[in-house]
Design a protein that fits this description.
heterotrimer, A alpha/beta, B mainly alpha, C alpha/beta, A: Rossmann fold, 4-stranded antiparallel sheet, 12 helices, B: mainly alpha, 74% helix, elongated
């Protein structure tokens, strides 16, 4: 099956701001290497789970795919078209196909706009919008996310967290995109609402035959949502494979540690592992060799010397580790 | 994770912000006092100005033979050295000062907001250039700048407006830029970009409506300040010209009578005082009402 | 663990009611809540947003906002804490009842080093009002301060830069699994990661040795690997400190990891309270059951849709009469809409407020 979205050697570096003077004094420009060489293929109608902790670069990767940020190097192809080359009008038109749902529904909705206008905004941006056709679309979309049309005249502050997120989801669907980036869409919601939204997202995906990139730090959520899972650490993908395989038979030591840290609501299964020592590495000055090596319980000498490449194994899984 | 109840209690939404703000203002007698004065001033200015002085007891320009009369029932504030009714002149000056105050502030806010928003949103070179120019203007003491420009342009009310606006716009530029910067990190701005909105549209529909309230609060406080500085301009002969009634001008012209016909300079001086205090109290009240710490105690 | 004021309990909350006065009206954050916190146990308070758990935590340490009205009693060491004057209670805060918050970064003053802030904790514990008193007393010096020679010549010993730290502080940092504690002592808060900062807060609590530690969502802002570390730390510390820990969280899984007892709150009331194993094996309240079912547990390829509790958290301005969970409860009966169920004991160490289970 042809992948619907391909990411090639994507890098996103942010310059560390230093005063003008230190530049003059010949200090080397420092960069935060948020995403440092990522290759990814996402297949049609699948949900690719992108998992990582804070500082892993997963949110930056999501934003680069959407071209909310311009990648420093590398490219993103959607349906065969290199979208990193797009500019101006073409870039805006591309937005009809790839949309995003943000984490915090309170700040992703303009509190000064009514729901109706929030939903009409994408249509207006594309030139259509006001008129019967536009109203029809937003009426249909708002009902498809489980809210009735009364909600159209309300302001965000009149809605609960779950309702606001439904509006955010509706907004992302108005242009009928085929690809949706979901950046921690339920992390800011209560547990009982979370499962409602996850079920809604699954249902929408099946009905509209959409492809999802589901970014999250929550392993249980990604288990419920994803077909395949990619694990990120310090700006690179360290493991990728079918969800069940990655979670039940993790290959990379980081993945193992991550999964072992996840608490289950079962008091008999306490987390017994020794906690990972050390902290998430500096993104300005990553460790040499494998970025995980300072914390890895299995680190060997080669791990400090050479950075492992993301290799494809016989069963199709990808992993970046010398010891596998 | 959802907000705790404590957080939600402390947070307020847009509509509620307004209600809470009004409530806090209502509870402070000083603010109410300021509000009454400011509202009275604006209302009086509108009425007097729009009626072309017809509602005044006497024609402020009319010369009569009863010179330098002390306050009587017929002339509650007396007459000046040309026989003109002082009360009518004081009242007639209100629209003049109101006009200048609002024009200057409106110009300053408009200019400041435009430059500040562009600076904040665009960033990079553009921001640097705009902010450095702003700094240059801010380097001058306001009064000095106003006097200098006014002297170059010449006397007159309109010229005064042009002279005063540059004194105030840099403050609004700074303010607008700061607000824009903090707004840029709000996700709904990003969301608008994500659905393909053009930057221009985002600025107009999203950024400006969200920063306008803050700017307007400062503008209110500034109204009083502009009147004072304008009065100074008139005082030194650069603002309004005789025979236009204007408080600063009236104080200057009446100065020689301070010991004899004290009502001539005193009445306009007190008028300036009252209006400036009124706006100042109102502005203070609004600013306090928006202060998150005080808002906390109101729930 | 019963609601009887007994010998084993450190704190007894009796019919606590907390109301916030907002411009929209009075919000009943907690209604007539009664709870005993036993000695030396970790008791988790679990609930979603708006249930009142944070308010309960703040009530215990008396840090509620001014808009809050409090009724009821909280007994600590036999005295009603709510009736004490502020100065009197202030002496209990810290060494008697201490609290750590969700955002460790906001709990640390950005202009002081870690060591300095921990030093203050020791000051509080030792009752030192004056920093100069640190120089007296039987504390081992770890390092000398780098006072400029000139300053020293003039006897300016109060002019300190990286200060002298007690070995105790370094030990406390090591205890919370901070590697390289001597270096961390000189670091500023912004140089720490979230996980480290939270562990510094725990170290601070350690130094004060409180009888009760209230932890309000201490791991919610942390990565899952840091969270695992903090949770295992808490289990160890309970044993070592002998403190009771009131662990407030929205995450049932986290509660399962650390708690000896779990209290489930909904809309300002306790709906279920049991020993941890008991609660997870036999959840009796429909809300607890629903909450457990909300935890995503299946793989996508199993194509199982988990049942969600329908509806939204109730409005506490106007709570429903009768059982507050009834509008969302799939088992609700006519009586549930009319009368409010009371918390009754349904077996040893298991209290539930539900008509389905008790009549």
């Amino acid at each position: 099956m042809e992948p619907v979205l391909t990411v090639n050697a994507l890098r996103k570096y942010y310059p560390v701001k230093s005063g003008a003077l230190s530049g003059l004094m010949g200090r080397r420009r420092l960069y935060v290497r948020a995403v440092d060489g990522v290759d990814l293929e996402i297949l049609q109608s699948e949900t690719m789970g992108l998992v990582g902790e804070s500082g892993s670069g997963k949110t930056t990767l999501g934003r680069c795919i959407l071209l909310l940020e311009k990648p420093t190097s590398g490219q993103v192809s959607f349906a065969g078209v290199d979208i990193t080359r797009l500019r101006g009008e073409d870039l805006r038109k591309m937005r009809k196909s790839i949309q995003i749902v943000f984490q915090n529904p309170s700040s992703s909705l303009d509190s000064r706009q009514r729901v109706k206008d929030i939903l009409l905004e994408p249509l207006r941006a594309m030139g259509s919008g006001d008129g019967a056709a536009g109203s029809e679309i937003i009426n249909a979309t708002i009902t498809s996310v489980g809210l009735n049309q009364d909600f159209l005249s309300r302001f965000p502050h009149e809605l609960s967290g779950g309702q606001k997120q439904r509006v955010a989801i509706a907004r992302s669907l108005v242009l009928n995109p085929k690809f949706l980036v979901l950046d921690e869409p339920t992390s800011a919601l209560d547990a009982s609402i979370q499962i409602q939204i996850l079920n809604l997202l699954r249902e929408i995906q099946e009905r509209r035959e959409m492809t999802y990139l589901f970014i999250t730090h929550n392993i249980s959520v990604v288990r419920y949502m994803a077909d395949r899972i990619a694990v990120m650490y310090a700006g690179k993908i360290v493991e990728l494979g079918p969800a069940r395989k990655v979670l039940e038979e993790p290959l990379h030591p980081y993945t193992s540690a991550l999964i072992a840290s996840v608490p289950e609501p079962d008091p008999r299964r306490k987390i017994e592992m020794k906690p990972l020592r050390g902290e998430v590495p500096s993104m300005v000055n990553p460790p040499s060799g494998c970025r995980f090596n300072p914390r890895c319980p299995l680190a060997q000498r080669v791990c400090k010397e050479r950075e492992p490449e993301l290799r494809r194994l016989a069963d199709g899984r990808l992993v970046a580790c010398h010891l596998v | 994770m959802g907000e705790t109840l404590v957080d939600r209690v402390r947070l307020a939404s847009r509509n509620e912000e307004l209600r809470v703000t009004l409530r806090i203002m209502r509870s402070n007698p000083m603010t109410v006092f300021g509000l009454i004065i400011s509202a009275g001033f604006i209302f009086a200015s509108l009425v007097i100005g729009l009626s072309a002085n017809r509602v005044l007891p006497y024609n402020p320009y009319a010369l009569t033979p009863s010179l330098l009369h002390p306050p009587t029932f017929a002339h509650p504030l007396g007459t000046d050295d040309l026989g003109r009714d002082v009360l009518s002149r004081v009242l007639a000056a209100a629209p003049v000062d109101a006009f200048v105050a609002f024009s200057v502030v409106a110009l300053a806010v408009a200019l400041g907001m435009f430059t500040g928003v562009v600076a904040g949103f665009a960033g990079g070179y553009v921001e640097e250039v705009i902010m450095r120019v702003t700094d240059i203007f801010l380097a001058f003491p306001g009064l000095v700048l106003a006097l200098a420009i006014s002297a170059a342009l010449g006397p007159g009310v309109i010229h005064s407006v042009y002279a005063l606006a540059p004194v105030w716009w840099p403050t609004y530029t700074r303010l607008a830029r700061g607000e824009t910067l903090s707004l840029k990190s709000q996700q709904f701005i990003e969301a608008a970009r994500a659905v393909g909105q053009k930057n221009r549209y985002i600025l107009v529909k999203h950024v400006i409506p969200n920063i306008l309230p803050t700017l307007l609060v400062y503008a209110t406080i500034d109204l009083g300040n502009v009147i004072i500085v304008f009065s100074v301009l008139s005082f030194v002969g650069l603002g309004a010209q005789p025979p236009t009634p204007e408080w600063g001008l009236m104080v200057v012209q009446g100065e020689q009578y301070l010991n004899s016909a004290w009502w001539i300079p005193l009445a306009p001086a007190v008028a300036i005082l009252i209006v400036a205090i009124g706006f100042s109290l109102l502005g203070d009240g609004i600013r306090d009402a928006l202060d998150p710490r005080i808002r906390g105690t109101f729930g | 663990m019963t609601s009887v004021v007994g010998d084993g309990s450190l704190i007894d909350v009796e019919r606590l009611t907390v109301t916030y006065t907002t411009f929209r009206g009075k919000v009943k954050a907690i209604t007539s809540l009664s709870l005993s916190i036993p000695k030396g146990r970790i008791i988790a308070i679990v609930g979603e947003s708006g249930c009142g758990k944070s308010t309960l935590g703040l009530s215990l340490i008396r840090l509620l906002p001014r808009s809050a009205t409090v009724e009821g009693k909280i007994f600590y060491s036999g005295r009603n804490v709510l009736e004490m004057k502020e100065e009197e209670f202030a002496s209990i805060r810290g060494t008697g009842i201490s609290m750590i918050f969700q955002e460790p970064m906001s709990s640390l003053d950005p202009v002081y080093t870690v060591g300095r802030q921990l030093m203050e904790a020791i000051d509080v514990r030792e009752g030192r009002k004056d920093p100069a008193a640190r120089n007296r007393g039987p504390f081992r010096r770890v390092r000398t301060e780098r006072i400029g020679t000139a300053a020293r010549m003039f006897g300016a010993y109060s002019f300190r830069r990286p200060a002298v730290f007690d070995q105790e502080i370094v030990d406390a940092l090591a205890r919370v699994q901070i590697s390289d504690p001597e270096r961390v002592v000189d670091k500023y808060p912004h140089e720490l990661s979230g996980g480290m900062a939270q562990r510094v807060m725990i170290a601070q609590a350690l130094l004060e040795r409180p009888s009760i530690l209230v932890a309000d969502e201490p791991t919610s802002a942390l990565d899952v690997t840091s969270q695992a570390q903090v949770l295992s730390l808490m289990r160890e510390l309970k044993a070592e400190l002998g403190s009771s820990i009131v662990f407030i969280t929205h995450d049932l899984a986290v509660a399962a990891q650390v708690a000896d007892e779990v209290v489930v709150m909904y809309a300002g009331e306790i709906v279920e309270h049991a020993e941890t194993n008991e609660l997870f094996e036999r959840p009796l309240h429909p809300y607890t059951e629903g909450l457990l079912n909300s935890f995503p547990r299946y793989y996508r390829d199993e194509a199982k849709v988990q049942e969600a509790i329908k509806g939204d958290v109730p409005n506490l301005l106007n709570p429903p009469i009768g059982c507050r969970f009834a509008p969302r409860c799939k088992y609700s009966m006519p009586v549930c809409a009319v009368r409010a169920p009371t918390l009754t004991e349904l077996g040893p160490s298991h209290r539930v407020a539900c008509f389905l289970r008790s009549e």
